[in-house]
Every structure is written in C-alpha cells, then in structure tokens.
Amino acid sequence: MAERQLEGLALTVRPLGENDRLLTLLSESEGLTRFAVPGARRPKSSLAAAVPLAHLSLQVGGRSGLQRVRQLRVLRNYSNLAQRLDTLATAQALAELCLQLVPTGDAAPGVLADLLLQLGRLEEVVRERAHQREALALAVQGSVHLLALGGYALPLQHCARSGAPLHPPVGDWDWRCSLLPSEGLAIGALAGARLVLNASELALLQRLPRPAPPRGRDGDLLGQTSVWLHLLALVESWCGEHLGRSPRAFRLLRTGLEPMPSPRPERR
Questions:
Q1: Residue 160: what are its φ and ψ, rounded to 5°?
Q2: Where in the sequence is the domain holding 88, given as residue range(s)?
Q3: Of 73, 77, 246, 257, whose CA is between 20 and 30 Å from 180?
C-alpha cells in the first residue's frame, strides 16, 4: 500500500515487541486503524510521542500486514487531563466508547470532531479548577453524543410503550418515567425498570444531544452531582444492553464522586 497522510487521535498505545508500540488511531476517514510504531519505546525515538490521547498527524505505509508509522507530528496532546482523576477517567471512558462504537477501516463521520470537542472542554475543567460535577456532566453528555453518532442513540422523545411524546412536567414531583434498556424510556414507574427518572432528570437528559452543556442564565451547570450520577447509571445500563458492556473507566469516575456510606454504630 502506498504511503499516505492520516490525522487522528491515539485511543490506545500498547507495547509491541521489544521496542515498538501498537497504536490504535481514531480518524474521520478510516474509523479505527491500528499501526506499528517502530522504536517508539526508545526514549530518544522521533516516534516516542505516540502516546494515548495525543492528536497526531501521521505518515503511514507498508507493503503488507500491519501498516507502520513512518513519521508523526503532534497536533495537540491532552496528557494534562491526567492531573485529575475525574478528567482522566472521563477521557478514558469516552475513548473506550469509541473503541466499541467505531468500525475498523470505515469512515466515522463526526466522531473524532465530537471527541476532540469534549477533550477540549475537559482541559478547561483542569485549567479553571472547576468542580468535579463538570467532568461528570461531560462524561454523560459526551456519551450521549457518541452513542447517537455510532447508531445507538437514546430514544428521548417518545414513550417506548405508548408512543406518546415525552414531555416531562417539570415541577410535578410525582411524575416518573422508566428505563427499559431493550426498549427505551416509558412513562410511569414500571415493573422491571432498570432505573426510574423524575421529570427534572428527564428534562435535563433531553437537553444533552445539544452541542453545549446545559447551563442556567447565570452560567452555572444545571443538575446536582447526584442527578448526574443517576444519568451516568442510565448511560451505563444502555451501553451494557446494546454494546455488551459499558466503559470500565466509568467506575473510576464514580470513585471520587459517590458519597461514602455512613459508618454503622458500634454495638455495646
């Protein structure tokens, strides 16, 4: 195959042999592609910059079998997300989701652009020392976007059972809808539901397909941490049902966000 230029994001980088690395790249034109990066594990190698969460421009080629990276240029490195557990876990979860959703060797319109957008927003969380809730919200919203781009969109507008429009009556604290993972969202607290949302939670969820995170007039992110954790559980359940499993990094994200259980009083 003739040598060619390719731009994309390094999703995973693993050891290959004694000195090489195996790079899994997400690109707009070829979806997921795997390349050998010769000598990349040598500290002084010109290809050592092939690391996870690096946006790269590559020159690749090879006559047969696994293609090889000949040259690379770093367009942007998101390694600073590792400064915080929440931003790193979110980035890893979104990368995992891409590995599940994106085909190998086929175009993946919009996926790379959306993932780079979320990573840029996570950098803002680090730079501005924002609350962990911001990273959690980006994990949920980024997942909603990627699922839609990958053909597994959450059906948020109509009841899965009756077909009636889902218009959550915000302020009515008795109203409920249920997640039935094999079907979608259905009005009411139904038997067999994986989880149940109130009207405010569904209204927030319905805003997530939009480009920007949901914010109030004062610019503050809508929804409490407990609400975003509930929506994360919904995304995890949907992924588990339709993709076979949810990203493992979601568990890491939960580690620093879920409240610790209260200690039991000692018996006397």
A1: -70, -25
A2: 79-255
A3: 257
In this structure, what CATH number is given to the domain that contains residue 33? Answer: 2.40.50.140
Distance CA 260, CA 5 (A): 49
Q: Give the count of domains, the chain.
A: 2
Sheet architecture: strand order including 195-198: 184-187, 176-180, 195-198
- Stated length of the chain: 268
Q: In whole angstroms, what is the distance from residue 20 CA to residue 3 CA?
A: 19
Predicted local confidence at residue 247, as pLDDT: 97
Q: Confirm whether 165 is domain-assigned.
A: yes
pLDDT of residue 268: 47
Residue 51: name the closest of 86, 91, 98, 110 by CA.
91
47 lies in the same domain as 118: no
Listed in sequence order, the residues at least 6 apart from 84 whose beta carbon sits closer than 8 Å to its beta carbon are 125, 126, 135
Same domain, 177 and 193: yes
For the cut 80, the answer to whether the pLDDT of residue 258 exceeds it is no
- How far is Cα 145 from Cα 92, in angstroms, rounded to an integer? 16
Mean pLDDT, residues 197-219:
97
| Burial (CB count <10 Å: 0-12, 13-18, 19+), residue 93 | buried
Q: Kindly state whether residues 219 and 93 are assigned to the same domain.
A: yes
Burial category of 191 from C-beta neighbours within 10 Å (exposed 0-12, middle 13-18, buried 19 and up):
exposed
CB distance 235 to 140 below 8 Å: yes
Residue 133 contacts residue 140 (beta carbons within 8 Å): no
**Residue showing tokens 């557990």:** 85
d(CA 241, CA 30): 27
Give the pair of three-digit tokens for residue 155: 């059906």
Burial class (CB in 10 A: 0-12, 13-18, 19+), 261: exposed
Point out the domain boundary residue: 77, 106, 123: 77
- Are the C-beta atoms of 114 and 142 separated by less than 8 Å? yes
